[in-house]
Amino acid sequence: MQLTVYRDGEFWVGVAEEEADGRYKACRHVFGAEPHEAEVLEFINATLPRLFRRTASSVEAPIFTERGRINPKRLAREAAKEMERQGIRDLAKAALMAELEHRKKTRKVASREQKEADKARKREIAVQKAKAKHRGR
């Protein structure tokens, strides 16, 4: 699991990435003002597990092969490059977009069902009104 906290415009954003069972999940949390260490720890312990449980979609994780012994200078360069990197990885962006699309589809289906239910209810009320008008004759 990896948590990246960065400044996105005027807000501080945390993107948590998790890889399990060959699937890659990512979730985003807006902190607002610059978070203190205690706030980040509280987020990791309390909020983050709920966010990952709520995340329904994931993307296929790339398979990395174990490289043998890595040259210490290369390892130091890679670590420095990772520390300088701003924002989130492309894989995390793909996972976030997949989650966004999934939520969009479920919201669309739910709103369509709600509209159909409202339409059926209004139709039933209109039919009952029409029947009530003709009963007196």
What does this structure look like?
- The structure is a single chain.
- By secondary structure, this protein is an alpha+beta fold.
- It has one domain.
- It is built from 3 helices and 4 strands.
- It has a 4-stranded antiparallel sheet.
- The longest helix has 46 residues, at 90-135.
- It is elongated and about 95 Å long.
- The mean pLDDT is 85.
Judged by helices, strands and strand pairing, the structural class is: alpha+beta
Rounded to an integer, what's the Rg over CA atoms?
Answer: 25 Å
Number of domains: 1
Shape: elongated
What's the story with the biggest beta sheet?
4 strands, antiparallel
Average pLDDT taken over every residue: 85
The number of helical runs is 3
Portion in beta strands: 15-25%
Number of strands: 4
Strand order of the largest sheet: 1-2-3-4
Instruction: Please report the distance between the alpha carbons of the first and last residues.
Output: 74 Å
Unreliable stretches, pLDDT < 50, 5 or more residues?
none
Helix content: 55-70%
Q: Summarize the helix and strand pattern as letters.
A: EEEHEHH
Summarize the structure.
By secondary structure, the chain is an alpha+beta fold. It has three helices and four strands; from the N terminus they run βββαβαα. The radius of gyration is 25 Å and the shape is elongated.
Topology:
Layout: E1 2-8, E2 11-20, E3 23-32, H1 37-54, E4 59-60, H2 72-84, H3 90-135
Antiparallel strand pairs: 1-2, 2-3, 3-4
Descriptive keywords:
DUF2992 family protein; about 140 residues; 4-stranded antiparallel β-sheet; about 55% helix; UCP021328; about 20% strand
